[in-house]
Amino acid sequence: MDIPYTVEVRRDTGLTNGKIGIWLFLASEVMLFGALFASYILIRTGAPSWPRGDSILNVPLATFNTIVLISSSITMVMAWASLMRRRLGTFRLYMGATILLGFVFLVVKYFEYSHKFHDGLFPSTNNFLALYFTLTGLHMLHVAGGMAVNAYLLGPGSKLWKTNPVWFTNRVENSGLFWHFVDLVWIFLFPILYLL
Amino acid sequence: MTSDHEAGLGDHGADLGEHAADIDRHVRVYIIVFVALMALTLVTVAVSYLDLPPKMAIAVALFVATIKGSLVACYFMHLISEKRLIYAVLVVTLVKFVALLALPALTHGSGYWIHE
């Protein structure tokens, strides 16, 4: 039996099931990160003193990573637009670029982390670093998760294009919604952790 | 049920039969949004070098981040033309998110807060 409402729209919701599913998941993600942001506010406002992020963290590297992640958002949406234009080859290029940019982000983060560890700065060192590692660590897991789904859609998952192009396009759009959310979280993490 | 390839995608009335001109229009918007996001990133970093008083710096940084986040949500995530049910989900989420962020303020008012 086929999975219902992957292609046609449910009359009561006006949406495909995948679309409402990914948005409900993103709503839960907002609350997950929200809990950590609330912890940040509680800990920071309760601290007698708080370091400015740029006194500990590397702002140029993080600015570079912000540009990388925003670029990966536009390649992601262009990958979807390519499918809307029925161009699988162009889709592959943009999706490959999206995954590559995600990889660049993680590599830069790896260097940031190892530099901190080398300097003896760990999550247990102080509250600022505890929040920094928790928030960016959780965010990195999301980047890795998004990359895995995108890699599936670029590789074996793209077989669906031949048999059901609309369903495949919907999958790419939903994966894109997650990817843009990950970008959106970083847009807030960057100033909060690095600049303030 | 899924064999009807021509059925709509359900988002802003799009399906693979959407006119190429419509997609071209979308793509132009994506590029404008991308340039705006890049510019705002530079603004965020530049403002941090101004050494504004902390409260001012936080307000400006969060204001710019909110604009950037809204651009991503509205255009890359297509929220500018989404179905009502998704708006409903997000309104509920937003209310709860704001409540969550306000919780630390409640502890502040309760006298539980530790002052120097």
Q: What would your notes on this structure say?
A:
- The complex is a heterodimer of chains A (196) and B (116).
- In chain A, 77% of the residues lie in helices and 0% in strands.
- Chain A is an all-alpha fold and 196 residues long.
- The longest helix of chain A has 31 residues, at 88-118.
- Chain B is mostly helical and 116 residues long.
- At the A-B interface, α1, α2 and α6 of A face α1, α2 and α3 of B.
The total of helices of chain B stands at: 3
Shape of chain A: elongated
Terminal CA distance of chain A reads 54 Å
Q: Choose one word for the global shape of chain B.
A: flat
**How many distinct helices of chain A?**
6
Return Rg of chain B in Å: 21 Å
Work out the strand percent of chain A. under 5%
Low-confidence stretches of chain B: 1-14, 110-116
* Series of H and E elements of chain B: HHH
Mean pLDDT of chain A: 96
Q: What is the number of E strands of chain B?
A: 0
Q: What is the terminal-to-terminal distance of chain B?
A: 66 Å
Largest interface: A-B, 65 and 61 residues
Mean pLDDT of chain B: 83
Helical fraction of chain B equals 55-70%
- Largest sheet data of chain A: none
Report the order of strands and helices of chain A: HHHHHH
Strand-helix topology:
The complex is a heterodimer of chains A (about 200) and B (about 120).
Chain A: H1 17-46, H2 59-84, H3 88-118, H4 127-154, H5 160-163, H6 165-195
Chain B: H1 20-48, H2 54-76, H3 84-109
Q: What structural keywords apply?
A:
heterodimer; A: 196 residues; mainly alpha; 6 helices; elongated; B: 116 residues; 3 helices; 67% helix; flat; disordered N terminus; disordered C terminus
Concise synopsis of the structure shown:
The complex is a heterodimer of chains A (about 200) and B (about 120). Chain A is about 75% helix and about 0% strand.
